[in-house]
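HOLO CASE FILE
Compound: fe (ii) ion
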Amino acid sequence: MPVHFAFLTDTHHYPDAPEDFGAPKMLTRSQEVLDAIPPALNTQAFDFVVHGGDFLCGGGSFNLPTETYLRSLDEAAKAFDQIQAPFYSIPGNHDCDAQNWSYKDYAARFPYPEPLTIVDAAPRLRLALANVFHDCDVLEQSGGIWTDALDQALRSAAEEALSDGCALLLFLHTWVLTDFDRDRGVVEGADKLRRTLSDNPSLVAAFTGHRHINRITPYRDYLIVDTACLIGFPLGYREIILSEDGYFTTRFHTLDLPQLNQDSYDRSTLEENRIWQGHVHDRDTEILLPRLKEVWG
Ligand SMILES: [Fe+2]
Ligand SMILES: [Fe+2]
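Model generated. Tokens follow.
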């Protein structure tokens, strides 16, 4: 049986936001977006759904008052409780309180891996849910850290997955690979993480959010899947199918909020919008994953 799941990220809820903040975000309309997410996901009967972090607008940039932060946490948690499929998530840099930089209240409502949680999400498929903020001063380092503790936990989970005949998907908030904008948004210690990914054939793909950009990069014999935000253009989530013959298929689904999406689009230049949404194969593509074929073969 193929595995069919959804990945969404960076939904950035901000109740009664005073402004939209930097494009493509549409924070003044975050409730509208939040309301549209569960019904959209529930129509597709996914095996499971994963959120890549930045549910909220805590941390840096927004200076959210604690009272609003607590309200946003409550409202976001209630919205995501409506998703019918098993729901997994990791924290983002904007999920801590903006006044004391603590994840304590977030951890009371959402999973907070210390630092890595492994779940059996489908037959012969495990998820490694990584918290790159578990031992990091988010104020100083919004990209998080790939710590030795994370690295060792992932290496042993990958070895165990291989001996059990399971494929492993890694989820972390920030990027694994640089782009033309140097190291912006890349997790500190990414070189160590890439070595671990290279060394472990059960690890077939890594999923990230944070930069609000769609990008799919086959790297060596695994895949890095970066996904745009769900609070502005291109305003969507990924549907992913992993087939028994080793194929990864993804389709990008835009929420049915055309005016909101257009209003977000109008805040950026053509070139900027092309970067947010990526080219066609960063949204919709089919790629053979040799490691998946081998592990599931
Ligand atoms: Fe974000
Ligand atoms: Fe982020």
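CASE NOTES: The two ends are 13 Å apart (CA to CA). Residues 10, 12, 54, 92, 94, 210, 212, 229 surround fe (ii) ion (ligand 1) (CB under 6 Å).
CLOSED: yes
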